[in-house]
Amino acid sequence: MRDIESAGSTPFVIVPPRKIWTKVLGAIVIILLALLVRAFWVGDIAWSYVGDNLFAPSVLKGVVGSIVMTFCTMALGILLGVIAAIMRMSDNPVLRNVSIGYVWLFRGIPALLQLLLWFNLALIFPTIGVPGLFSFKTVDIMTPFVAAFLGLGIQQGAYTAEVVRAGILSIDKGQTEAGLSIGMTPLRAMLRIVLPQAMRVIVPPIGNETIGMVKLTSLASVIQYSELLRSVEDVYYVNSRVIELLIVAAIWYMVVVTVLSIGQIFVERHFSKGWGGHRPTQPAQQTLAEEAA
Amino acid sequence: MDALITAVGLQKFFGSFHVLQDVDFAIAKGEVVCIIGPSGSGKSTFLRCINQLERIDSGYVTVDGEMVGYRRDGHRLYPLSDGEIARQRQAVGMVFQRFHLFPHKTVLQNIIEGPVGVLKRRRTDCVQEAKVLLKRVGLAHRADAYPGELSGGQQQRVAIARALAMKPKAMLFDEPTSALDPELVGEVLNVMKELAASGTTMIVVTHELGFCREVADRVVFMDAGRIVDSGTPGEILENPRNPRVKNFISAVL
Ligand SMILES: Nc1ncnc2c1ncn2[C@@H]1O[C@H](COP(=O)(O)OP(=O)(O)OP(=O)(O)O)[C@@H](O)[C@H]1O
Ligand SMILES: [Mg+2]
């Protein structure tokens, strides 16, 4: 109290804290980073190999393979996830339990194991087909691409189902009822009214899982699918530059993930329509003019 | 009387709780009926039964002579499919206490969603009609706004237009002004008065006794799941004979 009184009429001055420890910590981190960069620079890495192979056709083919696989598996995963989520919330106990069983099974088995099971399906079923109509040899159908697509896509669907269900649960029941009240069937209200709104909740975790999937496609290298990791492995089996080529792969994964992260921002923006924020609102003058008209 | 909507011996339970106890009701074409009564008396549940948002446990509802929710064959009733129930719901418009506009669609898209998406009518015709409806509820200049950019009163007027766009035979209102700030109540009631004056069949659950007095052909008082009394606004609001009605009216005023 006495302090305040004695300040009199002279204004108070706020003295910013000096944050000395922030500066010290920053300096330490910079030094450590510099040491790390130096270690890699002087270490036994032939950087020229990194540069030479970064845009090598076989590596680029691997990048494309990884991207294609990511999109295919995520498309399958989202499709299965939406179907499983809607089944899970159905009144029909058969549909509900099928969905629960699907999520339980495919979330429980490691992805790598699922890939190997699909790839080796021929050991269980030498042929696939409808007896009397047609039949194929399983080894012909279960190419590395198909095995990776099914293995990763189906297990992704099990995860996505839970994400979609959480999104659907976040939407007020009144929205469904409003849809029903203008003559929609429950399914139509789900697809037209509830799901588009749920997307706002669903998209961020799906974006996260897409980025996870980019890296998960590297598992497909064990069943000979020519994705990024596989393609750099093929190169270093020949020239023995293991670390250099792994660095090439790491750079490409980082590039793809960065591009996807930026894409996610735009997708989220699209689905937040109507929640204020990004849409320019009508200019006030125009509103007034129309009102007067 | 050629009733547009009837309810006969309606019973509804939530678990062991008896929400609607033997409700009989009828409304003629062009009639405006206000339902009043204390909170929890089953007014909303009754409206929701008419529109099949709640399953009826016993008794039945007809709309325009057609039994709701079931196909009748002699003394047997067969539940209708989702598609047929959806078709029946088209005949009855519903306005909710909390609007329930589709927030991801603009005002115009909200209104044409039913006629274009459900009735599969031509989009250009529906847009034309939607603009007429918007003018009718006084919001012609807000067609491209999102619901989140509108006041509560404006949202409720859009919700009324959305229901009207289906050209329903009757409109149900469940406390349409209860979620509004007092100064916005009037603009919604005015739209409803205009609807009533133009001959729309309306069932209105409301606490706005002034509106009942002015607009209703008949006032129905519900308490504890039953219709306790019903009559002209004068009979129910001015000189209620039933002591429970009398208590309620004096408490609200
Ligand atoms: N889905 C439900 N499950 C269980 N009980 C319910 C459900 N919906 C309503 N009820 C109960 O049924 C009773 C009647 O509800 P209803 O909403 O029809 O009353 P109301 O007359 O509309 O009241 P208010 O004026 O508060 O809106 C209430 O006691 C309510 O708690
Ligand atoms: Mg109510």
UniProtKB/TrEMBL annotation, chain A:
ABC transmembrane type-1 domain segment(s): 63-264
Domain of life: Bacteria
Subcellular location: Cell inner membrane; Cell membrane
GO cellular component terms listed in the entry, alphabetical order: ATP-binding cassette (ABC) transporter complex
Protein's membrane topology: Multi-pass membrane protein
One Gene Ontology molecular-function label: transmembrane transporter activity
Alphabetized UniProt keyword annotations: Amino-acid transport, Cell membrane, Membrane, Transmembrane, Transmembrane helix, Transport
GO terms for biological process, alphabetical: amino acid transport
Transmembrane portions of the chain: 20-43, 63-87, 99-125, 245-267
Main location: membrane
Subunit structure: The complex is composed of two ATP-binding proteins (GltL), two transmembrane proteins (GltJ and GltK) and a solute-binding protein (GltI).
Function: Part of the ABC transporter complex GltIJKL involved in glutamate and aspartate uptake. Probably responsible for the translocation of the substrate across the membrane.
Protein family according to the UniProt entry: Belongs to the binding-protein-dependent transport system permease family. HisMQ subfamily.
Record-given protein name: Glutamate/aspartate import permease protein GltK
TrEMBL record, chain B:
CDD domains the UniProt entry points to: ABC_HisP_GlnQ (cd03262)
Coiled-coil annotated spans: none
ABC transporter domain location: 5-249
Top-level division of the source organism's lineage: Bacteria
SMART domains xrefs: AAA (SM00382)
Gene3D superfamilies (UniProt xref): P-loop containing nucleotide triphosphate hydrolases
Pfam family, one: ABC_tran
Keywords: ATP-binding, Nucleotide-binding, Transport
PANTHER family in alphabetical order: AMINO ACID IMPORT ATP-BINDING PROTEIN, PHOSPHONATES IMPORT ATP-BINDING PROTEIN PHNC
Protein name: Ectoine/hydroxyectoine ABC transporter ATP-binding protein EhuA
Lineage: Bacteria, Pseudomonadati, Pseudomonadota, Alphaproteobacteria, Hyphomicrobiales
